[in-house]
Fold this sequence. Notes:
Layout: H1 3-12, E1 25-31, E2 34-39, E3 44-47, E4 50-52, H2 59-64, E5 71-83, E6 99-104, E7 107-115, E8 118-126, H3 138-148, H4 154-162, E9 169-175, E10 187-189, H5 192-195, H6 204-222, H7 227-251
Amino acid sequence: ISWSNLQSVLRESLPEDAILLQHRLESFQQEDDEVVLHFDGGKTVRAGLLIGADGKASVVRDVTVGDGLADYTGTMSWRGITDQLAYDDLELGESGITCHLQIGKQKTFAVIDVGGGSICWTGTVACESDSPSGDGSPEVRKASVLEQYADFAPLCRQLIEATDIESITETGIYDRLPVKSWGVGRATLIGDAAHLMRPVLGQATSQAFEDVKLLGDYLRNLGLERAELALRAYELVRIEQTGPMQIAAREQ
C-alpha cells in the first residue's frame, strides 16, 4: 500500500477537526495533570497527554530523552512512485511487477507494486554526505538518482525517468541505539521518534503500528487517571521488543 493511501485510510477514521496542519511544535512543559504545548506563531494548546510521533528529529524526544541528533548511517535513499499503466514502454514483462530487487556495489534498487496500478521504487547508495544533491531542487534530485543508477538494468532507469520530479524524495538514512526510557510524566514517543532503525528489516512502519496498538490498549484499560502508569508500562514492553531490532538493523 502506498503512503498516500495509508494516510487516507487513517485520516478517514478520525474526526474532521482532529488534524491541525501547519503547527510546528517548539517546546512543551508539564503541569499537574496536563501538558502545555507551544507552537510556532505563539499558539498554545493544553492536552491530557503528549504522544511524540515527530520522527527522527523529534522535538518531544529532545525533552523526554535528550540524546541529541540521530546517527547518519552513511547511506542515502531516493524514493519515487509512478503509474505503471501510464507507461506502455516499461519493460515489466507479461505479469508486471510484484517485487523486484537489484543489488550492486554499495547500491540497491527495489521495486514494489503498491496497488492501484502504481509502482514504488527505492534506491539506497553508500554516501559520505547526507545531501548529495546540493540545493535539493526536484530537477537536481532526479538527475542525481539517474546518475547513481546509470549502470543498473534498463528497468531501473526507465522507472526513474517515468517518475514525476515532484514525487522523488531524497533523504539520508539515520538510526539510533536503544535507550532505557522514551518518556517522562504524561509524555512518550512512538514510531521513529522512539526507535529509529535502518530500513533493512522492513519493520519501521509495522513497529509504529504495534506501538499504537499497545499504547491504546494500556490507555483504554487504565484510563487517563492513570495515564503515567499506562505510558511507562507501554514503554517497558515496547523497548524490550524494538531494541533488538534497532541493533540487528545496524549490524546488517
